[in-house]
Design brief:
extended; Integrase_cat-core; about 40% helix
């Protein structure tokens, strides 16, 4: 857990807050935005390439894991 008023202890959270501020300025009442807008913003943020994954998107990383030789067991994966 982090200490109160210590943003340097939770860098990922602060970075995500900054990304959200690109779409919704601080103090924005999110109840005025429909679920479609919120889902679109979430999809955009979740499809951003990540440095820790070699600048691949999370979907690309998952696809690589699922299509790797260790997953070729003959068991069908759900879609």
């Amino acid at each position: 857990f982090c200490d109160p008023h210590s943003p340097w202890q939770r860098g990922t959270n602060e970075n995500t807050n900054g990304l959200l501020r690109q779409y919704f300025p601080k103090g924005t009442d999110l109840s005025f935005h429909g679920p479609g807008i919120l889902e679109n913003v979430a999809a955009e943020l979740n499809s951003r390439p990540r440095k820790r994954h070699g600048y691949r998107t999370p979907a690309e990383v998952l696809d690589g894991i699922l299509s790797g030789p260790e997953n070729q067991t003959g068991v069908a994966l759900t879609a």
